[in-house]
Amino acid sequence: MSEDIRSLSEEQLHQRFKELGYPAFRTKQVLQWLDNGCASFDEMSNLPLAMREQLAREFVIPGVTVLRRLESQLDETVKYLFGLSDGETVESVLMSYHHGWSQCLSTQVGCRMGCSFCATGMGGLSRNLSAAEMLAQIEAAQRDRGIRVSSVVLMGMGEPLDNYEQVLTFLKTLARPGGVNIGMRHVSLSTCGLVDGIYRLMEERLQLTLSVSLHAPNNEIRSRLMPINRRYPVEELLKACREYVRVTGRRISFEYAMIDGVNDTDACALELASRLKGMLCHVNLIPANEVHGKDHRRSSQARLRRFQQLLEQQGINVTVRRTLGADISASCGQLRRQERKEDEIK
Ligand code: SAH
Ligand code: SF4
Questions:
Q1: Catalytic residue at 43?
Q2: Which CATH superfamily groups domain 65-345?
Q3: Is 91 designated active site?
Q4: Confidence of residue 329 (pLDDT cuts 50, 70, 90)
Q5: What is the rounded distance in angstroms from the CA atom of residue 10 to the CA atom of residue 5?
Q6: Could you tell me if the CB of 106 is within 6 A of ligand 2?
């Protein structure tokens, strides 16, 4: 089987090229092409034809292709359905902010965490994405729009800490000058609360922003929404978060999807505030997206404002997430499911 050329480090590639009889400068040339998002050996025009042909026999450049593109009529949001080399698909969303383009990336095909409100979790996990496939999502969007992505959030399909090794390789490659070149301060990683993974990530002392999907102030509600809470209850999760803040000095962002009648009461707001008191953190309230086939409803605007106010009164930093791309159901997981259903009907 052909080898994934992008999964090799510079030294490994150098070694492989040496075995194939190529001089050292060829490694640099090929890396430069790969860093520029080149998706085919054919296009590496400064290599001799015979070398390009040999590389194509020995290696693959795993990439993504744009299968579908939904453009919002309300703002500049673009949602992609990307195809992978084995026929699997993932979603990604490109958003325009005043500080530049931000892209939401997938880290897995599907997800095995089974959160009750999430479209991605409905079909389980198909497979992990490789680091190269994560990078390729950025390169494909940049090529497609003729823009540079300046920040990245790992909030698309999948649980990043359930694909720890590849996500970490991806993060390290991301910051390499010459390539996509996005620094850790412009990266957010969102987790449903895999406590072991949080401790592991903490040891890396990366300057990224850790987002934790909390969605409930206590175990009773959280276990109903998120099965992972039975393994890592709220107390353990928040303990890991406090430790993370202490060691990295970085503020944690808690995601809280407001679901009508489930987690949006005054009592929930007060309990949440008492749990988070004193922690260097920030709460991001998200009007929950309604998902076809699920019966949860999003909280009203009035409820959202009231919840926000209560948290503020308790001294908690809180923002309400702006909804971008509302007309193209920009949250992840839904487009892929729709596409698969259409496939099944065909
Ligand atoms: N698996 C990771 C990251 C991907 S999900 C995680 O769970 O954190 C990205 C975010 O979208 C998470 O905060 C998740 O809880 C949230 N999310 C999933 N489905 C949602 C929905 N229907 N409405 C609002 N937020 C949702
Ligand atoms: Fe997986 Fe995150 Fe969806 Fe939960 S919310 S099922 S962890 S993608």
A1: no
A2: Aldolase class I (3.20.20.70)
A3: yes
A4: low
A5: 10
A6: no
